[in-house]
Design goal:
The protein is α/β, with parallel strands linked by helices. Helix content is 40%, strand content 20%. The chain has two domains: 6-69; 80-280, Rossmann fold (3-Layer(aba) Sandwich). The protein is built from twelve helices and eleven strands.
Length: 282
Amino acid sequence: MTAETIGSVLKSSEAWLARRGVDQPRVDAGSLLAAALGMERLQLYLETDRPLQETELARFRPLLAARGRRQPLAQILEKKGFWTLEFKVSDQVLTPRADTETLVEWALEIETPDEARVIDLCTGSGCIIAALASERPNWQLAATELSPSALALARENLDALGFMARVHLEQGDLFAGLDGPFDLIVANPPYVAESEASQLDPEVRQYEPELALFATGEGLDVLRRIAQESLARCTTGTWLLMEHGHEQGAAVRALLDEAGFKDIDTRRDLGQRERVSGGRSP
């Protein structure tokens, strides 16, 4: 019986994942096998003829099976890169996405005091506030999260990255009793309409937390509340930046206008879709 090699397992696993609708079967098969073997993915392709032991295959098979069930790769590996950092992830938080870096980039462009007071609402894994902490060592940072389990993971991430001492975390709804005033407010809140659940990819619909995904009022109710509640916590010229669905740009700009914000604008994500809208307090 011919032994399985790294190359043969990569080829068969890629085909198996492709039949199950996985978007990047070659990348994912390589990432999972590398994790099972304790290797870098590039190293696999330099050792394709290496035979695999049954103990190594036994570590790999459950990972492959989980991806075949469409569990997100980041959840299986329990890690995801965002900005220049790596975060622990689980099914208790949204997996950090590259499109959310649009919000971080905009936040870092805004002119703020050297020791600006900044709050991140609906922090989830803590990826946004950690990215800001990594770039602005003098900012006074706070983050809130409604889910206790998500907040615990944010705390774990901030601690592992060395930022926990610089970020005040609070469990609760939106501002969670933190009155500010703040020089910058950022948020990636739930914004998917419940009627759109069936349109989501299985990776999202089946494995990411509903609390972080769905909002009532066609997905706009939490965004509306943030716009309405933020102005009272602003200094003059404070910016509020909110991530939203790619078809919600016009609606979110209207919410910001109704709340009294000025200089309202929208930034596009990597796919050139409207993704983050913001405005400045008068």
